[in-house]
Amino acid sequence: MRCPRLCGADGQSGPPGRRPGCSGQSYTRAVPLWRAPDFLEGIQAMTSPKAHRFELGSFPLACGETVSGAQLDYRVFGELNAEHSNLVLYPSSYGAWPEDIDWAVGPILDPSEHCVVLVSQFGNGRSSSPSNGGPPLGQGGWPIDHRDNLQAQIRLLEEVFGVERPALVYGWSMGAQQAYHWAVLEPQRPRRICCVCGTARTTPHNRLFLLSLRQALSADPAWNGSGFDTLPEQGLRTFALIYASWAASQPYYRRGAHRELGYDTVEHYVEDAWLPAYRRHDPRDLIAMLDVWLANDVAAAAGIHWPFAAEAGIPAPGGQPTAATAFSQGVGTGSDPLAVALGRIQAATAVVAGRHDLYFPPADCAHEAALVPGATFHVLESDLGHRAGNPRQAPAEQALLRAVVEELLSR
Q1: Residue 335 has what pLDDT?
Q2: Staple 354 to which of 61, 326, 371, 388, CB 3.0 to 4.6 Å?
Q3: pLDDT of residue 26
Q4: CA angle, corner 11, sides to 223 and 235, nearest 5?
Q5: Are 305 and 119 in contact (CB under 8 A)?
Q6: Which residue stretches of the chain have pLDDT < 50?
Q7: Could you tell me the end-to-end alpha-carbon distance of the chain, in angstroms, rounded to an integer?
Q8: What is the CATH number of the domain that holds 154?
């Protein structure tokens, strides 16, 4: 039986969707209380010659808390030119370690022309995460969000590479969310962004998927309110079942793709191919990344609010803005803050959707692309579902993504 490598597939304890309460406290590194049995696989991978660690030191979070000894894991492919104008930033997706997604360097991102920096987002077990002494999970969720990924990545590019304006920020899934945050919160910095199978704001339907995953883990008997006493075997199996039904599409299963891979039933497919992809992670990290995804909203991150934010469970800092404040932000009656936020983007933008992506359907991606000045919109005609945006073994999808990137870099 062949077991294909699943590459970065893409609930909190408090009220769904609310950001964690921020008390201004500091977090210091501590020895993790628990790790998945095969977490050493990740530690061994970090010793690869391509792995680098950027020490952020005492790192202030957007919510007001501070992380002591924060760090970013990153890898570099290609060389920075003399003008420092060819750097491509490639942030990681949900559950992805660098070795899961570095295959794209070559088939999609050309290291002979660009210096590609693949950076692990907070929470993935390589950069600061609950499993390695980063902020722990609290009763209100994890205190880090994409604003913090952005600021840490800015420091990485400036302090290590001397780059203020990356030529491109390329991201799939949660990586696309980070690319949108670069372009909205720091519109003068990225020259281009390519957002593949991801949205600038988590939709209500996508939230249901994320909350079901969080509930699968936190309902396991091993959950103690802020972590796990033992490996949550039942929770992880439920987690993998949910993921397998969402990440791949109905046409994918209809044509029997799992049987083509050597699995006689979908149950065997989940047990042997999907479950190992999540058992390798510390489950606290899986929850931390879910909390970041749940909070994804570039308008709220930019401080642009209206009743939608309250409806989504995202509190406006200092309460809802007054009419005068809203007017000064360019938000009129009936205006969606997302339109205002995306309208700020100055970077040349390409948005790519998967035809059968259940997380980020083409209609959702097209709606956001229409709000970005001058953005181009593309659809991957593929039955791979969400994973069409990370097509490790799909040459046709790779070729389309390569063409989109090349056209974008020509602008």
Answers
A1: 72
A2: 388
A3: 55
A4: 45
A5: no
A6: 1-8, 11-23, 27-49, 308-334
A7: 46
A8: 3.40.50.1820
Residue 120 CA to residue 114 CA, distance in Å, equals 19
Tell me how many domains the chain contains: 1
87, burial (CB in 10 Å: exposed 0-12, middle 13-18, buried 19+): buried
Contact, 1 vs 262, CB < 8 A? yes
Give the pLDDT of residue 144: 98
Domain range for 125 = 26-302+344-409
Cα angle 342, 348, 353; round to 5: 70
Q: What does the buried/exposed string (b/e) look like for 352-365 if buried means 16 or more CB atoms within 10 Å of the residue's CB?
A: bbbbbbbbbbbebb
Task: Report the candidate in 162, 66, 176 with the shortest Cα–Cα distance to residue 121.
Answer: 176
**Environment class of residue 9 by beta-carbon count within 10 Å: exposed (0-12), middle (13-18) or buried (19+)?**
buried
CA distance 20 to 11: 12
* Domain contains 334: no
DSSP label at residue 187? T
Amino acid at 170: Y
Helix (H) or strand (E) holding 148: helix 146-156
Question: CA-CA distance, 61 to 273, in Å (whole number)?
Answer: 36
